[in-house]
Amino acid sequence: MIGLGAGLSPVLGFDGTRQPSDVAPAVGVDTTTRVPPPGAPLGLGGVPPETARRLTPAEAFRSGAQALRSGDTAKGLVSLEYAAEQGLAAAQWKLGRMYADGDGVEQSDVRAFDYFTNIANAHADDTPGTPRGRIVAKAFVALGHYHLEGIPNSPVKADPARARQMYFYAASYFGEPDAQYHLARIYLEGNGVPKDPKQAARWLGLAAAKGQYQAQALLGAMLFKGQAVPRQAARGLMWLTLGRDAATSEDGWINELYEAAFKQASDDERSLALVYLEQHLKARR
């Protein structure tokens, strides 16, 4: 992992950015304070300076999230930006998603990219499976998407090799199923690397076992056709069924794969697929 970190610079410096606990807390708002009289000098958040108290980054994040839920975007941004500046990964991730989606702010992929990069730089060696580890893994996946497509009118250019590095790190170190799926797509399509369907099938299998529905559908299609793997039509139809059941309206390709396989399958293959499906669902309960 350390060797990989060195290979990911400069975007991923892994430079030991200070943790939130290393930084002095902010001046925030004490929600228990009295309402100031008319004409009183106001401090941060409309509260007199003498009644304000210091908030930790985590408290600022919770306050910002609550403000967003209540519709007070301006107040929420102030709190989230403070928590993000202090290195709180959850706040950086929330702001990154907001700018990526244009959710309450002017859409900006460049700002989103910066927030995700800050997370990756500071927390690349976090423990997998922890709440913050899951955020870090998703930040790597988001960076992979940006490197794969590039950001127009910015220094971030399309770089499939760099995207593969982002996906691979999240897929291997954090075991992130979305990263495993996208890494498999790179190997299937030969995007920046030689095509390697067997390597793709391996990553799809790992992601599918964790419930990543797109990986389930793609693995199912490969198994049904015997593409780069021994043909297992019933097993493939089982994975295709799981993928189809979890797909959204934007995943028309999954339904097409399922319909094509179901029409081609024999009655025995369909029946065995149902047996496999029952066994799979039972094992996950």
Describe the structure.
The protein has 285 residues and is an all-alpha fold. The protein has a domain at 18-33 and 41-86. The protein is built from 13 helices and two strands. The chain has helices at 2-8, 57-69, 73-85, 89-101, 109-123, 131-149, 160-172, 177-189, 197-209, 213-225, 233-246, 252-264, 267-284; strands at 26-27, 54-55. Strands 1-2 form a two-stranded antiparallel ribbon. The radius of gyration is 23 Å and the shape is elongated.
How are the SSEs placed, and which strands pair?
Layout: H1 2-8, E1 26-27, E2 54-55, H2 57-69, H3 73-85, H4 89-101, H5 109-123, H6 131-149, H7 160-172, H8 177-189, H9 197-209, H10 213-225, H11 233-246, H12 252-264, H13 267-284
Antiparallel strand pairs: 1-2
Number of helices: 13
**Main sheet overview:** 2 strands, antiparallel
Write down the overall geometry: elongated
Mean pLDDT: 86
* Beta-strand percent range: under 5%
- Distance between the first and last residues' Cα: 33 Å
Category by helix and strand content:
mainly alpha
Helix content: 55-70%
Low-confidence stretches: 1-52
Order of helices and strands: HEEHHHHHHHHHHHH
Spatially, the strands of the biggest sheet line up as 1-2
Please provide the count of β strands.
Answer: 2
Work out the radius of gyration. 23 Å
